[in-house]
């Protein structure tokens, strides 16, 4: 441990060695906050704190995995495996699954992603005969989401005249009814949406003191990274869990709070010292990530914000190159500039692609960058777009699997009941929904009793419904014995999905088939890691949960060498030697939607600060004079953020191509002494700018992290394989489930199974051939 502690500076050591009590580390970007959390966990373990008693909450599951890997090198892999680490959503989904019955949910509840939520909300709006131009699905979803994250349940909503009045004023008087309908339907379907995972955790901890006590006792040490971006719901969970031992360590940077639009509350970090007694406050000031130029430029930007905590950030790193600012004529040119610059940097310095990141404000901007990178044969990967698991063909197959696990899952059923086409039309579907609602049953229950319920479908349709029900039931039977891979493999064939996709020999069709294969491979990987668990349902359910909750970054195994393309929101906490921040134009960044108030503009500025501070060696800022947006070519002006940076840190360049394209912009015309450079503040040529060109105000806010995960094998490791002289009553330890007692042994030889009650409360039946158990 000593050896590792020497890798921290003194300011970092202080919070690392502060073992007990509430503490907060507030510090600027790149100063080692995440590093402190990592080493602190290792230190706690070296001081005898059991890994099972440590809970660490991170912004992505990838961050958690990296932290765990680092800790493993210090304390050893088998110990590090026992740590509870992950995003709020993934950690609390596990706990909820365990405690589901208390809240009236089945433990095999499935999870709706935003696409599923949208579909259900749209269906409800239609069923209620509301005007979908006024009741816009995504707006309604975001409203419901913000209610949930503020812990405003349906009941609370209808008790609050102000909220109802506000929705009435917004011409949406039925919002409460939609909310109620949505919540009821999710509950009946045995599903939770993302916000439920936090809301229901709060409900669990509030309504059941004994459950709260159990987890308080379990999580004696709690650590939270990126605390500035927690929402109210997350805040309350952390408060409740840390209330007993008060060993709570949060780290964050108010200057990097960028999720207010999703309900993040910067006051959580500002008020931390009021929430606990005797809070120790630590500050870190030395940045290890970036050059002096980048650190100073970033400081000069964030200085423009009025609402901020005073912080010092300095670095002992090299001066480094100035930040390069590039102007292009169009977004296409911008893409070509980025691609050729990456190409040149790579060639000149012999760098891997993974040293480069292109960051943008909105996902739509990736297209022109992609085109240019493709032309240059530079491999890239887009993070946070439509993720693998949201592609239609993948969601269709996953919906079959979800339906097997949880036949009440309404959205899953709707997706597959007539895919591949079975002649079950929309009218029949609508009637099923009506019948289900009037009987208070799930749609699948109606299907199973199709001959008993009153429903207006003819005998032909009835037969088709019966066939579908039988098909799903046969999958359920198979699920009793087969593993997730065998089942999925069978489902894609028996359901007709493969046959359907095979009909399409276009490149897109072939790609869809390949995606299905990739999905099956993913499930196989997962099963390999799960082999020891006898109960295959659990493993399929777990797989589906991982899929639903993984963020797009999680899919990155770090093996392929590619340029990373992502929104700035998603880049939080990451670092790259070369960073290109593109689309620095007024109305794009800062976004047109975020210039109404000072606080909105300040959030955009913090976003810019986050973007710039991702760069280690070199940052590029680029903008175009015109850009295709919403199908139209729109003139644009450079972002105010460029001008806000002290000019001494900037190097204004304009590529030769642009001068060739447009001699009017050639430096010579302006009498510039350096022909290769065009000064940034020079007036833009009027021919390229229509005065007051209208800019549409309909920019969508981008949700950063979407889901896409290749499941990770969970049980690799250097553990002892058990030779089967295990007896009832033995105490054993399992890598993932912890310590437990053997309740029962059954079977013989290669089929010997043990039923074990683990101290975390779960009972699992394990196949000893695979189980990684040690007798203790
Ligand atoms: P952000 O605010 O962006 O999340 P952070 O404060 O979490 O940043 P880290 O990511 O922990 O900062 O650290 C930034 C970089 O500096 C990392 O590459 C880290 O390994 C390195 N670093 C941090 N502290 C030290 C140190 N004492 N010696 C050497 N390198 C360090
Ligand atoms: Mg960090």
TrEMBL record:
PROSITE patterns found in the cross-reference section: UVRD_HELICASE_ATP_BIND, UVRD_HELICASE_CTER
Known EC number: 5.6.2.4
Catalytic reaction(s) noted: Couples ATP hydrolysis with the unwinding of duplex DNA by translocating in the 3'-5' direction; ATP + H2O = ADP + phosphate + H(+)
Domain UvrD-like helicase C-terminal, first and last residues per copy: 292-573
**What's the source species for this entry?**
Bizionia echini
Any idea where the UvrD-like helicase ATP-binding domain is?
A: 6-291
**What keywords does the record list, in alphabetical order?**
ATP-binding, DNA-binding, Helicase, Hydrolase, Isomerase, Nucleotide-binding
What protein name does the entry list? DNA 3'-5' helicase
Q: One GO molecular function term? A: ATP hydrolysis activity
Broad enzyme group:
isomerase
Tell me its family: Belongs to the helicase family. UvrD subfamily.
Residue positions binding ATP: 27-34
- Give any single GO term for biological process: recombinational repair
């Amino acid at each position: 441990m000593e050896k590792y502690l020497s890798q921290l500076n003194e300011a970092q050591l202080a919070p690392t060695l502060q073992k007990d009590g509430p503490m907060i580390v507030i510090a600027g970007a790149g100063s080692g906050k995440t590093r402190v959390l990592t080493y602190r966990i290792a230190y706690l373990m070296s001081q005898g704190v059991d890994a099972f008693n440590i809970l660490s909450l991170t912004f992505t599951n990838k961050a958690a995995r990296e932290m765990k890997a680092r800790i493993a090198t210090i304390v050893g892999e088998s110990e590090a495996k026992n740590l509870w680490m992950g995003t709020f959503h993934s950690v609390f989904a596990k706990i909820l699954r365990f405690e589901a019955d208390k809240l009236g949910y089945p433990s095999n509840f499935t999870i709706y992603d935003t696409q599923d939520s949208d579909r259900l909300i749209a269906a409800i709006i239609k069923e209620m005969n509301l005007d979908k131009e006024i009741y816009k699905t995504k707006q309604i979803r975001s409203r419901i989401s913000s209610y949930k994250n503020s812990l405003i349940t349906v009941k609370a909503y209808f008790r609050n005249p102000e909220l109802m009045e506000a929705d009435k004023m917004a011409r949406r008087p039925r919002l409460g009814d939609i909310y109620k309908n949505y919540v009821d339907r999710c509950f009946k379907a045995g599903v939770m949406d993302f916000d439920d995972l936090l809301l229901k955790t709060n409900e669990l901890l509030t309504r059941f003191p004994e459950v709260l006590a159990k987890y308080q006792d379990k999580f004696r040490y709690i650590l939270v990274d990126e605390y500035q971006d927690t929402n109210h719901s997350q805040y309350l969970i952390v408060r409740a869990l840390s209330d007993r031992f008060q060993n709570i360590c949060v780290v964050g940077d108010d200057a990097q709070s960028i999720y207010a639009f999703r309900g993040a509350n910067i006051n959580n970090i500002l008020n931390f010292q009021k929430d606990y007694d005797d809070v120790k406050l630590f500050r870190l000031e030395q940045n290890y990530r970036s050059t002096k130029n980048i650190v100073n430029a970033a400081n000069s930007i964030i200085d423009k914000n009025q609402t901020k905590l005073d912080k010092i950030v300095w670095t002992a790193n090299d001066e480094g190159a100035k930040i390069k600012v590039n102007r292009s004529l169009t977004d296409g040119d911008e893409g070509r500039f980025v691609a050729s610059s990456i190409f040149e940097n790579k060639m000149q310095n012999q760098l891997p692609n993974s040293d480069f990141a292109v960051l943008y404000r909105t996902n739509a901007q990736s297209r022109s960058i992609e085109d240019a990178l493709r032309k240059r044969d530079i491999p890239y990967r887009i993070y946070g777009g439509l993720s693998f698991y949201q592609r239609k063909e993948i969601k269709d197959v996953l919906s079959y699997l979800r339906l097997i696990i949880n036949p009440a899952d309404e959205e899953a059923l709707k997706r597959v009941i007539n895919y591949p086409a079975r002649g079950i039309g929309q009218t029949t579907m609508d009637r099923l929904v009506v019948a289900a609602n009037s009987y208070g049953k799930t749609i699948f229950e109606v299907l199973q009793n199709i001959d008993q319920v009153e429903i207006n479908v003819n005998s032909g349709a009835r037969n088709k419904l019966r066939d579908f029900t039988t098909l799903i039931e046969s999958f359920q039977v198979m699920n009793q014995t087969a593993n997730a891979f065998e089942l999925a493999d069978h489902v894609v064939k028996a359901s007709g999905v493969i046959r359907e996709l095979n009909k399409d020999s276009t490149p897109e069709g072939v790609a869809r088939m390949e995606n299905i294969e990739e999905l099956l491979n993913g499930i196989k990987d997962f099963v390999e890691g799960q082999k020891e668990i006898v109960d295959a349902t659990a493993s399929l359910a777990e797989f589906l949960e991982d899929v639903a909750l993984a963020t797009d970054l999680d899919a990155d195994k770090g093996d392929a060498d590619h340029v990373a393309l992502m929104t700035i929101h998603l880049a939080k906490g990451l670092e790259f030697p070369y960073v290109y921040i593109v689309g620095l134009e007024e109305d794009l960044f800062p976004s047109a939607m975020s210039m109404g108030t000072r606080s909105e503009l300040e959030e955009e500025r913090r976003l810019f600060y986050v973007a710039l501070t991702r760069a280690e060696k070199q940052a590029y800022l680029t903008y175009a004079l015109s850009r295709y947006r919403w199908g139209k070519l729109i003139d644009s002006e450079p972002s105010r953020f460029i001008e806000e940076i002290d000019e001494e840190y900037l190097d204004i360049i304009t590529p030769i191509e642009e001068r060739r394209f447009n001699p009017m912009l050639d430096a010579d015309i302006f009498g510039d002494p350096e022909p290769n450079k065009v000064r940034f503040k020079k007036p833009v040529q009027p021919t390229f700018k229509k005065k007051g060109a209208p800019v549409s105000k309909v920019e969508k806010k981008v949700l950063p992290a979407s889901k896409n995960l290749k499941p990770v094998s969970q049980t690799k490791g250097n553990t002892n394989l058990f030779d089967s002289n295990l007896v009832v009553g033995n105490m054993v330890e399992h890598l993932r489930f912890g310590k437990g007692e053997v309740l029962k042994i059954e079977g013989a030889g290669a089929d010997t199974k043990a039923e074990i009650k683990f101290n975390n409360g779960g009972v699992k039946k394990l196949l000893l051939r695979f189980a990684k158990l040690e007798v203790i």
